[in-house]
Amino acid sequence: MPGSDPPGHPGRTIVVAFIVRRVIAAVLMLAVVSMATFAIFFLIPRALGQTPEGMASRYVGRDATPEAIQGAVKRLHLDDPLIVQYGRFAKGIVAGEDYSLGPKKAECPAPCFGFSFNNNQPVWPTLVDRLPATLSLALGAAVLWLVTGVSIGVVSALKRGSVLDRAAMTVALAGVSLPIYFTGLVSLSVFAYTLGIFPGGGSYTPITENPVMWFQALVLPWITLAFLYAALYARLTRAGMLETMGEDYIRTARAKGLKESTVVTKHALRATLTPILTIFGLDLGLLLGGAVLTESTFSIQGVGKLVIDAIRGNDLPVVLGVTLFAAFFIVLANLIVDILYAVVDPRVRLS
Amino acid sequence: MRKTNALALAALGTVLTMGLAACGGTAGGGGNTSSGNNATGDAASAAKHNDAYTKVVNPSDAKGGTLKYALSDEPDSMDPGNTYYAWNWNFSRLYSRPLMTYTAQPGEAGLKLVPDLAEAPGEVSADGKTWTYKLKKGIKYDDGTEVKAADVKYAIARSNFTDELTDGPKYFAQYLDSGDYKGPYKDKDLNNFKGVETPDDYTVVFKLKAPFSEFDFLAANPQSAPVPQAKDTGVDYEKAVVSTGPYKFESHEVGKQLNLVRNTNWDPATDSVRKQLPDRIEVQFKQNAEDIDNRLIAGQIQVDLAGTGLQSAGRAKIVNDAKLKDSTDNPFTPFNRYAMISTKVKPFDNIDCRKAVQYATDKVATQAPWGGPLGGEIGTTAMTPTTVGYKAFDLYPNGADHKGDLAKAKEALAACGQPNGFEANVAVRGDRTKEVQVAEALQASLDRVGIKLTIKKYPSGDWSAQYAGKPDFVHKNNLGIMIAGWGADWPSGFGFLSQIVDGRFIKASGNYNMMELNDPSVNELLDKGIQTTDATARNEIWAQVDQKVMESAAFMPFVYEKTLIFRPSNLTNVYVHPAWGMYDYTWLGVKQ
Amino acid sequence: MTSPAPEAFLELRDLRIHFPTEDGLVKSVDGLSYKLERGKTLGIVGESGSGKSVTSLGILGLHKGGRAKISGEIWLDGEELVGASADHVRTLRGKKMAMIFQDPLSAMHPYYSVGAQIVEAYRIHHKVSKAVARKHAIDMLGRVGIPQPDRRVDDFPHQFSGGMRQRAMIAMALSCDPELLIADEPTTALDVTVQAQILDLMTDLQREFNSALIIITHDLGVVAELSDDILVMYGGKCVEYGSAEDIFYRPEHPYTWGLLGSMPRLDREPTERLLPIKGTPPSLINVPSGCAFNPRCVYADRTEGKSTSQVPELLETEGGHLVRCHLPRTERRSIWDNEIKPMMEST
Predict the structure, then answer these.
(1) Does A64 contact chain B (CB < 8 Å)?
(2) Which among C94, C110, C147 is the nearest to A257, CB-wise?
(3) Which of C148, C177, C206 is at the close of a domain?
(4) How far is CA B568 from CA B547, B565, C85, in A?
(5) Domain range spanning residue C159?
(6) Looking at the domain assignment, is residue C144 inside a domain?
(7) Is the pTM of this model over 0.90?
(8) Ranges for the ABC transporter domain (chain C) (predicted)?
(9) A-chain residue closest to B255, CA distance
(10) Which end of chain C is more exposed for a tag (fewer CB within 10 A), N or C?
(11) Which chains touch B (3 or more CB pairs under 8 A)?
(12) What are the distances in angstroms from CA A67 to CA A75, A104, B171, B355?
């Protein structure tokens, strides 16, 4: 009916209500994630017959006396009922907690994700410390792969079947199949150790310390990480573009007398990019929770490197912290993607 | 037992190192004590494979530059009182001085202890239960204050008697007569710690429960390095350790980066072992292990701090390049890799069945998983060649080529009453690839004489607490053979053997004497040895213990572990210190 | 080489549009010729796949740069388009000739407002400001009968009803006063009352602009009242051509008979077919030998075997009425008069 439809763009109240609803859902989800992670690391070992002492023995030296192990049990509260342990963890996030590190109590202000079992550092400051490296890596790589992946995909689709298309898709297949660990080490070996163009592994420097070094050290990790994603995005874009170019509205656009370049950029690309934008948001959100392989390969002390080491070392507070951190980014990315989607595609409503 | 870098070890490949020619020349530790100080000329270009094993390569007293270390893991702690890593006992000497330490020399000479913070080795009382050390005067912390005897006492108290500092060994707690002392964090009055007395500011007296003639080795542990009580922040102390060595903490981001700079309050006149060459020392933690090798070879870093050697890819590069190989050394680590054959599980309770295993094993096959000759030398004794008191012998010669003496094995089987062989289980840490491969090689070996092995895999995390280290479990599950390894906390026969062969150390859980050998003569010899103050006589006794243990046929060594470590050409003053089987980190310099 | 320019406003001469595919050559349009004058309406009728849409896309030059192999001539207002450059034909599109597509939900871009899409079409050919173009778009929407066009101009296609969307589509096509308007199934997706409104609208607008109009449909009913001439396509070829009267009162091709028999009528059940056309449309790769329609033709046995061996010619039967059939003319007349017509009238 004429005029009865609400306007296509989301109104402010709709957006606010949507965000509020989603934030509540997100908090609930994070709680569930934390419980699940907690259960994996605490409940399951207990169910399998692990004693508090057995668990504590992981976090003390090899020759620890029974007293030392008991001390660790007490210090880490491993002998409390699980629900109490979880409650303490949850309370720590909201209200902070004190820890015994020796002669004095150490304060861990909210949000306190506890202290690492392995090196006794508070988890939250560690996370905050590792985030800029991950952000630098993920955002830089994201820009790179989005630009290259999409352009290659578009060109490939428009020149479908050409030598260019075949070459690009072969490289893309390689990019998707080759593990980052391999491409990373090869690129280091060639560009850092043989040609000496870029610095080697472990040379990440915060941008606040030395922007030039920051950039140089990140070029190879960016390219390595972006290579994988660019390959994926090129394939996605190509497929999406081919589909879009067959749409009726593209024919309509041409029938109007539009130049082909306008047809591609204004009509085809916009429709192709919308689903890619969704995937992009989720990929980026996932990466902000840690680009585990790239960070490990290039020895970048980011969130991903932190969590992989924590998992290896059974360092529950760190694992929990990073899991929640990563879940937060994924939820955030989802939220942003949903809002953006509604802005980009007028058919989508926030509800 | 010392920790090694388990990850690095697990990553060492075997495929690539198969078929390597043995790199001989230095087996047995060598006795060459030539010091690099006397060497002249450009040693860098002339240095050959294993040169740093017997002499100082790239000798130089040139100061300056930044020396870069990298570690694939993160340390348990950089606090000298709270660490169990061999590399850290070596490295921490850059900023902490224990009472005693090892002579700065390659080869056997390096195993000799020399006083460090102390003026002289410990003076032992007639009853062997009191050890007294006099401190050198004028030794200062990096803030200029003088080191006091009470700081040594405090260091022992915090590292051995607190619930918080759990990462290091607890030998002082074990041997000192300190009653039920609660430790300095619960009991603020240090006078209640009776195990150590400080009659004056320069005298430290240790009171032992029983005679212990190797106490100087304990005093060489970095736990005896002084810590001022006022500066102690417990677990956090590793963030800002107060230095007595040539370097001090500039910054330490735990698990990330440690930067050391020169300590101007260190007086070289008081120090016979250390040098102070680089201006700055940087350590990066948690670096990609394979990338560390590449950076070493490219000269971008100088040392892989863990000292456990190159990864498989790096090794492959080395063995294919003679020039690169000249930049490597292949020292023994303190580790012996072996199988323990249970004396309680049938039919191994019969010594002849154990002997059958000793004869039938193809030790070339069991050497391969460790990386062939570069990864370890075939072993025939319980002690390793770099242990004080080691004597070479072979009670179960299994053929000139070490591939097994099947005739002797069958004889032994007949003597055991199992002429056609039998079925048995071999337990192994399932997540340790190399040990699993060793078990498989053993399986194939013994199959030749009819001993059918079933491989049982257990997780390494609870290996000693729940599985192989729990005799009840071993008996119930008929674990006849267990694949294990051991490295001594100090390089003497006692340090190596006591935990794994003393029948009185068989524990219900966390047991390392998995073979459950309880031979009174072994136990007595250990007691006799540790009470013998004369070092030569004492070392003779350790050799006898080794002999006795091997006679039981319950201990079957595979290899004395070796590593392949890389020395970049810009690393100066390099030699392998035998106490750790890695470069002496207090000597290294860097070419600018 | 092209022959001299014809007098007619639009003339197709032996147009062939073939698509090479992995399975073989698809002959979508295979030798099509016709003429159309300004102010006149041509109905092109045929099943899907008969080549009617491909032909009109060919006229618009939308196959250029693609895989299609095009031969023959398309003359529009004295200009030959098959040989013309793609860029030149593009400048004619939208302005000189425009097309109304079927299913406007998919034919309009879902992300742009209806107004924006009309504005875009207008501004390609007119150097005017956005505001002016917008005013024009509102005008056009008003003229095609969209109520409150100044409000609806910013709506998105999905916010329009089906009929409104079709009107908007027409407004877009007419925004530059095209001289040739091609409507491809303009009413397929609409219900009957709306269909009539849209068809009325198109003829009104055609009269107003004096454009030439081609209506493409599979439904003879749609073109019955609007068309001056009707062209029946089958298998990429014209099988019958004539005035609307010829086709409705004197049809001579068995396929046309089938189409007429399928016309929905108010006095019949919509699904009931008096003269069902059996079988399926022919493959355009392996065209049946002889007459492409022969496998489906009830009267094929009356052609003395020519039906499967010879391709029939398109021959004039009388006064501009062309038929492509092997049946003798008398036979065709007799079948229509004595067999088909009475059957259609009896129900």
Answers:
(1) yes
(2) C94
(3) C177
(4) 41, 10, 68
(5) 107-177
(6) yes
(7) no
(8) 10-260
(9) A119
(10) N
(11) A
(12) 12, 20, 14, 40
